[in-house]
Structures are given as C-alpha cells and as structure tokens.
C-alpha cells in the first residue's frame, strides 16, 4: 500500500532529477492573486499547513500535476526519445509531458508526441496510470500507433529511436515512471496480453532522486 510522505524531497532541489516542490508550501511566499505576503498556517477546519494571503485571505492549494504520454508500438518495437533538456539530459523517455489546461489527456499525449518526436499518432487505449505521491505527479500513458512511419527528434530531443523489447535501455531511462511503464509493457507482451495497470510509485527512503531503480510499485492493480 501507499505510504504518506511529507516535507521536502530528501535529495533536495539541487538534484539533477526533476524535483517538484509539491506540498512544499513554505516556498509560497507571495499571493498568486494579489501579490501580498503569505503566512503559513493550518486553516480552520483543515489538517495541513497552507500558504494563506495576509492581504486578501485566499489560500494557495497545491494539487498534483498530470503527465500524459504515449507508448508507441511499431513493428514490435517502441519509440523512445533521448532528452536534450534537463532534467535527465541524455536519458531516454517515452514522449510525455504536462497536460495543459483546455486539452484532454489523449490530446496532451498526442501533442507531446508531436513536440518531442515529430510523430503523428493515433491513441489506441489507456495503458497505465502511475501515481507518484512524493513529487505530486500522476502519469497517464496511452498505447498508440504511428499514423505514418515517420518520426524525428523535436526541439527537446537529441534522438528518437525504435527499440525492440530486448534492447530497451533500462539503465539509461530518464525517470522511474518510464522504468515501471516499460517493464509492465515488456511483461505483458511476453505474456501475450496487454493489460491496463494502476500503481503507486514510492521512492525507497534514503535513496538518491537520481536512482531511477530505487522505488517500489505499490497497490498494483491490473485489468
Ligand atoms: Zn492575496
């Protein structure tokens, strides 16, 4: 089962891997609406410390972000992009990124694939939802196929490549979420049936944020 995390990420914000200050309410020092200074207190009737504006009294609630992406199958291979941006520069990832206001999860996954791999894809089915409570992110990854057999690196990628399952660079992936997604996918393919997976990625306590293999996959449900 999941465990509860609070406080700053143990690796600290100087880590080379994405550390989002989700839940780190003390970093909010000014009101996003009026610019007034904030105080950090537990509002009446609540349980968590929040940043509260001392001028307009509005409370800054922080909520997890949704990361959407595509697992693209082509000729028994999957498409990966080598990151040309930090964090995780030079490491491989599925095309994925933050969902924007005004778009659906599928639209976001298709857009990110176009931006990172210059590939036009059709989404086929949901493959995985992976929650990462520590950093306040939820990944939704869709199975997809190329509409045309063309792809090339977009501005955030230095290379895009199809990998057979045996060649997936598990030691050079950008994020734990990618390790989990691609492991589940490889297991499903070998078992002859793709499933939908839900799970919680929990960082092993005391490990470096850059150690993408130092996690447990908890509450794994599949259908
Ligand atoms: Zn205010």
UniProtKB/TrEMBL annotation:
Task: Determine the domain of life of the protein's source.
Answer: Eukaryota
Chain ranges of the Nudix hydrolase domain: 63-186
User: Mind telling me which Pfam families this protein's record contains?
Assistant: NUDIX, Zn_ribbon_Nudix
Q: Report the protein name in the record.
A: Nudix hydrolase domain-containing protein
Q: Which organism is it from?
A: Prunus armeniaca
């Amino acid at each position: 089962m999941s465990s509860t995390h609070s406080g700053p990420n143990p690796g600290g914000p100087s880590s080379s891997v994405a550390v989002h200050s989700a839940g780190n309410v003390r970093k909010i020092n000014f009101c996003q609406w009026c610019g007034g200074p904030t105080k950090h207190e537990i509002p009446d009737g609540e349980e968590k410390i929040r940043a509260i504006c001392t001028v307009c009294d509005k409370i800054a609630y922080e909520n997890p972000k949704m990361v959407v992406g595509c697992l693209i199958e082509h000729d028994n291979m999957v498409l990966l992009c080598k990151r040309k941006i930090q964090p995780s520069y030079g490491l491989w990832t599925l095309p994925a990124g933050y969902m924007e206001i005004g778009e659906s999860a599928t639209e976001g996954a298709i857009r990110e694939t176009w931006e990172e791999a210059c590939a036009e894809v059709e989404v086929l089915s949901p493959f995985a939802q992976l929650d990462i409570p520590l950093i306040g992110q939820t990944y939704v990854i869709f199975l997809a196929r190329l509409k045309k057999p063309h792809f090339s690196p977009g501005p955030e990628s230095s290379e895009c490549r199809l990998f057979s399952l045996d060649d997936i660079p598990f030691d050079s992936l950008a994020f734990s979420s990618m390790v989990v997604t691609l492991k589940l996918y490889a297991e499903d393919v070998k078992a002859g049936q793709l499933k939908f997976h839900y799970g919680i990625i929990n960082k092993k306590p005391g490990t470096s944020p850059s150690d993408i293999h130092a996690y447990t996959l908890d509450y794994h449900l599949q259908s």
